[in-house]
Amino acid sequence: MEIRSYADYLRSLDDAALIALFESRSDLTSPVPSDIASLAVRAASIPSLVRAVDSLNRWQLQVLEAAAVLPEPFTEKELLQHTDKSAKFALAALVNRGLIYLAHDGYRLPSNLREILGNEIAGLGTAAPKKLKLKDLENAPTASKKVLDAMVWGPPRGAVADVKKPNPGLKWLLDEGFVSPVNQQTVVLHREVALHLRGNKVHRELLMQQPELTGRKVENKSLQLAAISNVTTFLRWTEEVLNFWGQTTPVALKAGGLGIRDLRELTQHLGVESACASFIAEVAYISGLVTIDPDDRILPTHQFDIWLSLPASAKWENLTSAWLITSRLSGLDATPMGPELDRSIAAIVRRKVLSLLESAESIAPTAESLLAALQWNIPYRRTGGVPAEYVQWISREAEWLGITAQGALSPYGLALLNGDDLSMVDQDLPKNVDHILIQGDNTAIAPGPLEHEVAQELDLIADIESRGAATVFRFSEQSLRRGLDHGRTGEEILAFLKKSSKTPVPQPLEYLIGDISKKHGKLRVGNASSFIRCEDTALITQIIKDKKVEALGLRRIAPEVMICSHDAIDAMNILRSAGYLPAGEDSQGLLLSGPRVQRAQTKARPPRILGEFEQPTVELLEIAVRTIRTGEKSSAKQSTLRDISQEALGSLPRTTANETLELLTKHLRENPSKSLSIGYADNNGLVSHRIIDPLQISAGSLMARDHATGEVLTFRIPRITGVAAL
Amino acid sequence: MSDGPLIVQSDKTLLLDIDHPLSVECRRAIAPFAELERAPEHMHTYRLTNLGLWNARAAGHDAEMVIDTLIKYSRYAVPHALLIDVAEQMSRYGRLRLEADPVHGLILVTTDTAVLEEVIRAKKIAPLLGARIDNETIAVHPSQRGAIKQSLLRLGWPAEDFAGYVDGQAHPIELKQEGWKIREYQEHAAEGFWHGGSGVVVLPCGAGKTIVGAAAMAHAQATTLILVTNTVAARQWRDELLKRTTLTEDEIGEYSGSKKEIRPVTIATYQVMTKKKNGVYSHLDLFDSHDWGLIIYDEVHLLPAPIFRFTADIQSRRRLGLTATLVREDGMEGEVFSLIGPKRFDVPWKEIEAQGYIAPAECIEVRVNLTEAERLSYATAEPEERYRYCATTRTKRDVVQELVSLHAKEQILVIGQYLDQLDDLGETLGAPVIQGSTPQKVREELFQAFRTGEISCLVVSKVANFSIDLPEATIAIQVSGAFGSRQEEAQRLGRVLRPKADGRGARFYSVVSRDTIDQDFAQNRQRFLAEQGYSYTIIDADDVFQGKI
Hints:
The complex is a heterodimer of chains A (about 725) and B (about 550). With about 725 residues, chain A is of the alpha+beta class. Helices cover about 45% and strands about 15% of the residues of chain A.
């Protein structure tokens, strides 16, 4: 079969080649195209080509550019001549991706591809309209050479004062046809000329190799230690953030995400920089440990409780695997957990950065070398390269997470990337301690990561003063009271401390706990709507036992006092109906005697007066009559007009657009000063009647003055339903 | 994972496990750059501060050494961010230098023009600077040496001061070690100070700060101005210097309310220095009256504001601050460090106690129940009167009386804040009362009588908070104090910490009214001592009456 088109080429591919194509361009199979023709359409469409071009590295891109500037069809040899011998492999990769294909007469490019690569690929101008004598270039006058030097490596266009009056150097070039004018002030150097001058190479510098990653060597031991420290710290941060939000729930912003004030609070609580705090929040969010509920509250989920019970390796995997695939970049200057953090390239860049780090093998590459290597791998043509900050953020985040440590990929990060078993995280974590040391200055120190249960209990009765591998807790009156508020008793607290402390509980702390638990709850506060008191305790007892007043929901809080859930008036009515003789008491305790005269608390707002009006003066009445008369007249006229127009509309003949146009043209030609009656359809298809003075017809529209408004309007001719001269 | 004694926390605190075999070694290693914050029984807390790190740089330690030390002794992995921060902070030091220039006088030189550009644009710094000499150099008004150092410190670009110190007028001073020997830690302290140039030495009460002062004078070999809190202290300094050094009586002058002698070694009181005459501090000229080679500030935590200001102007003279408790409720510790100098020596109280240089002390809080009537009047008292009311209740008097009779054979000090309470106590106990209005002569007579054992009990007001040397006091009973002042509590405990001839321990009673703000204040007051490892025992007043102590 002779391959005459891209579709033909695709048809000629065997299964393996098609699979290879689909592998490198996954968008081609979602959804699966119905036949090769539609596959060819999709594969040659601009969006798909853009994706494919974006996935190339810098060298492949250069080869593709070189291919794009060669006249079609071209041979492999021509391409290698314009680039380098090793471009053979790049060419194969490009063919694999369906960006270059082999037709019956040589290599060709899908037609849209050049459009994507831009107008002036590799700084080369347009091809010359005629065959040029390139040999003559060697004899160019010096002034012309200067011009050529300025333009040879692009951009190929140059600005001149006036093409009509070129300077001698340019004039020679124009005359010879090496340079052509584009417009009055611009000239362009032809592609063949530039290529010739470039020594038949397309690029000045061939970027065949990824720039090497350079940096400091990190020792394995210290790398592992630092990584485990990062891992533990991040897990601790996450736990603390969510525990913190479990207690003081922030409310999400209207637009979504965590408000600046809540972020600041969080930053303070954790004692980290705010970029780090927002990252922690973001990771918890993307891994589903926290969510924004329908009431806009930011709350930890049940997932979090499950997460808490997992071993550290699983906890870590949970967070890091969510981070690996997310398209969100928390470094962006936008609200954490908000809607504006997505960048389509984020996950690609992240993967690439990590795989570069993996290839660097315990070298911590410098930021510059990492960026250079990344930009070679992902030239990302659409926006002129991956922003340097992305790489910076990703490195920073990987470090926080412990995927890297001291700038190099950690053993845990490596295992994560390869999908290996992560249980070594658990083995390398510092052993949990189950005891604390209580000291005379009312502090307790957990000399290592504390068992979860002990930590939680301690969190309740003490404030954390210092965080890290160890934790310093401080007992204070407030912190102990918090424990009591949560239902612990003084004895329980003391017993817990005695059990978990390796050192004896200092006596002053024991006293402090005793003092506070003694005082705690001495004052009781509750809600009541009214109270009933009586010096006769027998009567109180009687009432409280009385079935008839059960509705009052009485509770005796002292021998002489009961409280009631109804307000005072209801309580009195119920008591009266049960045969008691209660009297009201005001807020000062004074007896309210006699019927209680009530007064409204609000300002008086009498209703609006309707009906009666002031008697109007004669003058006013006269004016009124005059107004009415005038109105009447005009409305009669209006209604007559309306009748006429309705009638006119009915009598208007319906015409097609062509007939209308004809009628209008004729009318304008013959008696342009006469008004017309037309029917005109609005956007909804409703036809109204208009009286107009036609002015002019242009571009399918009629300009005319509308009698109803007096304005000049544009009427679209197809919408005019009929025309009649008045 | 090593099993070191140190836990490095991410908030830049260091926890030192003192029961660990390497703890002493580790403490020595981290002392140059970390500041001791608390020293209770099991875990000491140190903190890495910028100031501390810069001082370490000034003393010749580099970031690498700091990082190595942290990693070497750390039990867990050290947070990487912290290490980076340490390196970063330490690299800030020394980019700016103050130097003496033969042509321009004092100059500020930089190795990093960007930093210089940044600081000369700072509002606080611009007025202190003179003409720009070249890209890297700018002149500084010599009188602003202290001010510019302070401002640069606040900006986070501490200047290394190469301008040096004036030697002052030479004057031979030697330690006269006859029948006594300077202790190891005192020597360390004096040397630490001398190599650092200026700074503060923190030693517990009774640990012999005067000797550190004397040793510093022996290093300086120059005329010295000593600033002390009051006249009694001035006399004690004089006696001590006469005993411990080659100085003779003619060489030591007293500059106080009563005497105005200026001699090669002059001892002046803060009170006279800050006395205003027609709205001016007429006595501050003393600083300039002599070419002092060394200025010693005793009890530097009490340094009054005018002296602060003046100290900023005398940055070219060596300055030594001495204190037991560098905690100021006004939070001016930072000023002390930046004007007098960084902390050059600090050691936990308990360590000195372990070496036997200060007496072991037992702290006991006696809780007194108010009577029903007293509780009622306390509850209804005006808020500003409340502390006074509960601190001076009658019930306390009975407890004090009982305590005194229980320790009848020992030397007892009763210390309080309110004069009528003290008078009342004096009367009840039959003991003389020393207060602000007691003439100097009478005070000294009474102290002498107390020393010889003629009197066994003295009632003193806050005038005796500092610098009274009562060698044989073994019991102190505190009945009231200046609200929640931590350093007052420590100073008062210091009254009984001088080592006793027979090696007995001392006791410090603090009588507190239960369930009142007296108790709350007591808790705050005790914090400093608790952080130094003194743990209080709480007993009930009834235990005292039943003799159960």
